[in-house]
Amino acid sequence: MKTYLGAVLCLLLLLNAHASCAEGNIPAKQAKEQGISGGLLERIESISSFLIKDRPHGAHSYWITENPSERTFSSAMEISFSDGPEFAYMFATKDRFKDEDWISSGYVRIWYSPKNFVQTMGDFTEFKYMGTLSKDIVMMKKEDASLIFYLMPAGDGTIVIKRE
Which residues form the signal peptide (predicted)? Predict the structure, then answer.
């Protein structure tokens, strides 16, 4: 009975979800379907393709419906890897700087490492320790880049947060 209910629940969730992994680059598809075009669509396609590659994924995206090519688009994604899922969040927005149009964008990736906190810190030898955010979450950064990792203890493992 539990298996049957579980299957029905999964089916309902898939039908209700924004998109499932069988549809290619889901965030880019959602943006196109909402009429987003130009440089904003190009940036959405670029970032989401970089994050997803050819991996199975699902996405829930958000956009402002009024003049969407001039507004912010964001997407939360679950990306499947052989060792477990990763959560990724991306955004892209049209911006103006010094009377020129720009596209501002960024992404965050979050995953669980089964390694303990000290072992996980050892995986980031090319990064410089920058301190803690408050008490427990360590920040590490490459000196010459905008790439930052936050490491957060989580039971016997570590939550790794990558921001760029």
Answer: 1-22
Q: pTM to 2 decimals?
A: 0.79
Pair (71, 86) in one structural domain: yes
Domain with 23 in it: 1-110
CA 62 to chain centre: 13
* Helix extents (H) in the chain: 2-16, 26-33, 38-52, 117-122
Residues 45-69 pLDDT 10s: 999 999 999 899 999 999 988 888 8
Q: Which two tokens stand for residue 62?
A: 């958000």
List the beta strands (DSSP E) in 3-154: 57-63, 72-81, 84-97, 100-113, 128-132, 138-141, 148-154
